[in-house]
Amino acid sequence: MFKAFKEFAFRGNVIDLAVGVILGAAFSGIIKSLVDSVFMPLIGIIIGGIDVKGLSVMVGNAELQYGQFLQASIEFLLIAFALFLFVKGITSFRKKEEVVEEEAAPTTEEKLLTEIRDALVRQNESSTKN
């Protein structure tokens, strides 16, 4: 059972996933700070000096704090956009690697020319021996 767990845990995909989750959590903190410290104050200034995070409305005895929801939504959109750009960059990098690997293989024409060359060399060797 330990051997099976070890094989599962140390597979490349699981380790990549774990690293991605850790980096995602750290990145989330950076985006949260960016939204809290830069974007939300700017949005507050644009809409007339209002603290967006503090926006709320009273419905009966309940206070609906839609400003916090708005701020969390903006954080989500920024994180999603940044991850989109990251994944797009990784995908284009992988495509470039695949193109380089494909170019290394000889084409059919190159294979045929190599065969013709080898046949001519063999023909010349046999004619010089006679």
UniProtKB/TrEMBL annotation:
Subunit and interaction comment: Homopentamer.
Lipid bilayer topology: Multi-pass membrane protein
Family: Belongs to the MscL family.
Pfam families reported for this sequence: MscL
Subcellular location: Cell membrane
Annotated transmembrane regions: 12-31, 66-87
Gene name per UniProt: mscL
SUPFAM superfamilies: Gated mechanosensitive channel
The organism's place on the tree of life at top rank: Bacteria
Signal peptide start-end: none
Official protein name in the record: Large-conductance mechanosensitive channel
